[in-house]
Design a protein that fits this description.
Length: 289
């Protein structure tokens, strides 16, 4: 089985960034020179995915418009001889085949993924959360697809976090399978302090099998009154193996104000045109402030 499709849930309200997100989707907040959602889609494209499925809600049309062709803007840019910018915008609109489905009720990540069932069909698929940016030499999604080609089972991306922060994440417990990979024994969503010895936290990257849709349909609302993907994966783990992969790279929670600022700094330092000058600026600021 080959992973050809990626589901990207973008239906959230982005309340952690109010008032900035009152009128624009949180996924359209920029990191250096492009919206966060574009980094996610570019990761998908670089990983060999053929189709993106956005799970949207009311007020998210700006995301779809960003990846669409704008005839009027294209014409104006060409008239003004801004051909490089026109080429870049055309590149964005031709990145990948995009389909959108609506999550009609805000019932959590699990429900958002379930909403894409008819478009995904009977095949494995990737899930990438728009809040999580991963800076790495090899795209995180590509790393996971390479592992999936070997194990042909569901995979969750994990990173090690301080034990006193495990209650903020979904946590997996498991046995080492090979380098950076664990075979999962147990998963728990935001465990109470002291209830687990594991510090392997799930981040916003998954490779899932179509069987997850049946599990999600049967999953009752859990933490926060939402349908939790972790609960459905736990049910699936009772029937077949699930793996956790400790990806290579640095993850930024761009849905958090501090994480967002850290992402801007990290991606700015690696920017081809701005990185050198930006590094000098940061050095001067650190000596001044």
């Amino acid at each position: 089985m080959k992973v050809r499709k990626a589901v990207i849930p973008v239906a959230g309200l982005g309340t952690r960034f109010l008032p900035a997100t009152k009128a624009i989707p949180k996924e359209m907040l920029t990191v250096v020179d492009r919206p966060t959602i574009q980094y996610i889609v570019e990761e998908v494209v670089a990983s060999g995915i053929e189709q993106v499925i956005f799970v949207t809600s009311e007020g998210k049309s700006a995301i779809e418009n960003h990846f669409d062709y704008d005839f009027q803007l294209d014409t104006v840019l060409k008239m003004k001889k801004k051909n490089k910018m026109a080429e870049e915008l055309n590149h964005i609109s031709n990145l990948i085949d995009i389909v959108s489905v609506r999550q009609k009720k805000p019932l959590g990540l699990g429900h958002a993924i379930w909403s894409a069932r008819d478009v995904v069909g009977d095949e494995p698929f990737a899930v990438l959360l728009g809040d999580d940016l991963v800076l790495s030499d090899q795209p995180c999604c590509h790393q996971m697809i390479s592992l999936f080609d070997e194990v042909q089972e569901a995979i969750v991306a994990v990173q090690q976090v301080p034990l006193d922060q495990t209650s903020n994440y979904g946590i997996v417990e498991g046995r080492p399978y090979n380098d950076r990979t664990y075979k999962i024994d147990r998963m728990v969503e935001k465990p109470a302090p002291g209830t687990t010895e594991s510090n392997l936290a799930i981040i916003g990257r998954y490779i899932l099998l179509p069987e997850i849709f049946e599990m999600l349909e049967k999953t009752k609302p859990g933490h926060g009154g939402e349908i939790q993907l972790t609960d459905a994966l736990l049910q699936l783990s009772q029937q077949r193996s699930i793996y956790a992969y400790e990806f290579k790279g640095i993850r930024f929670d761009a849905g958090d104000k501090l994480g967002y600022l850290k992402a801007i700094v990290a991606f700015g330092l690696r920017h081809a045109d701005l990185g050198k000058e930006f590094r000098e600026h940061l050095k001067q600021m650190s000596e001044t402030l």
